[in-house]
UniProtKB/TrEMBL annotation:
Keywords: Cytoplasm, Exonuclease, Exosome, Hydrolase, Nuclease. Its main location: cytoplasm. Component of the archaeal exosome complex. Forms a hexameric ring-like arrangement composed of 3 Rrp41-Rrp42 heterodimers. The hexameric ring associates with a trimer of Rrp4 and/or Csl4 subunits. One of its GO terms (cellular component) is cytoplasmic exosome (RNase complex). This is Exosome complex exonuclease Rrp41. It comes from Candidatus Iainarchaeum sp. SUPFAM superfamilies: Ribonuclease PH domain 2-like, Ribosomal protein S5 domain 2-like.
Length: 264
């Protein structure tokens, strides 16, 4: 796809037939898979594959907040830990948490906190731990998508699920769900977002790069439009598990029913 023009190399991010470097359309998400209850030791858990991204999320709590000086007598606190495995990136990552992981943990914890009825659990902590096992851009939104499903799996009451979505720009084209090659475009704009889909509330929005007001407005439309697909997959995965348990305990029958869309 790379063309040489003099000494410079130009990349076509969307070709004449409307295809991106990985064959997707401009507004097409990568393949997403959501599984619920994958970690038996945890109160709630989820696994998300989002293209090459692979994310495991666990939830413990609400439980007594220790150390006690961190406790809030009016509400639960959310402690969110985002970590990348050493083998999740092409250049082995030092297992020690870096500034990037600490920042992502902070903003993601704040995003999740917006969705939870924290005031129902004073003096408690909800620990959410997310491990990135493999990555190709968009891990923080995949992580939040997994984490909110894990919270639901733990039975924690929420105002809405938190669904992640990435939008942005590469090679002058507005794109949904940028991969690493697109995020590395010279004019790249990367906008990871997390949204409460039913309430229409944005709980995480970060932005790298420059775009016009028109592009911004269009990118936001794309985000709200496509986050619904992520939300549907989260719901489907939860229904699959709880329809199974709520029915006869016959896992196969429940899973089949969920796939056929007969479980409400
Ligand atoms: O993953 P996300 O898009 O949320 O975060 P980012 O900081 O924009 O990173 C984009 C991608 O860069 C990650 O998904 C990783 O694949 C890669 N990366 C890496 O190769 N080495 C790191 N130390 C951090 C990120």
């Amino acid at each position: 796809m790379a063309k040489k023009t003099g000494s410079e190399e130009t990349v076509t991010y969307v070709d004449k037939s409307g295809k991106r470097l990985d064959g997707r359309k401009a507004d097409e998400l990568r393949k997403i898979k959501v599984e619920v209850g994958v970690i038996p030791r945890a109160d709630g858990s989820a696994y998300v594959e989002w293209g090459q991204n692979k994310v495991l999320a666990s939830v413990y709590g609400p439980r007594e907040c220790l150390p006690k000086h961190l406790a809030n007598p009016y509400k639960a606190i959310v402690r969110y830990t985002y970590r990348m495995a050493a083998f999740s990136v092409p250049d082995r990552k030092n297992p020690k948490p870096g500034r990037r992981e600490i920042e992502i943990s902070k903003v993601s914890g704040e995003a999740l906190a917006r969705a939870i009825f924290l005031e129902r659990f004073p003096n408690t902590a909800i620990d959410v731990d997310v491990e990135i096992l493999d990555s190709n851009a968009g891990t923080r939104v995949a992580a939040l998508t997994a984490a909110s499903v894990a919270l639901a799996d733990a039975g924690i009451p929420m105002r809405d699920l938190v669904a992640g979505i990435g939008v942005g720009k590469a090679g002058g084209h507005l794109l949904v769900d940028l991969n690493k090659a697109e995020e590395d475009a010279p004019d790249a704009v990367d906008i990871p977002m997390a949204i409460l889909p039913n309430l229409g509330e944005v709980v995480l929005l970060q932005l790298d790069g420059l775009m016009t007001q028109k592009e911004w407005e269009e990118s936001q439309k794309l985000a709200f439009q496509h986050v619904k697909k992520v939300y549907e997959l989260q719901k489907e995965a939860l229904k699959k598990k709880y329809a199974v348990e709520g029915n006869s305990g016959d896992m196969e029958a429940g899973a089949r029913a969920a796939e056929e869309g007969v479980v409400e």
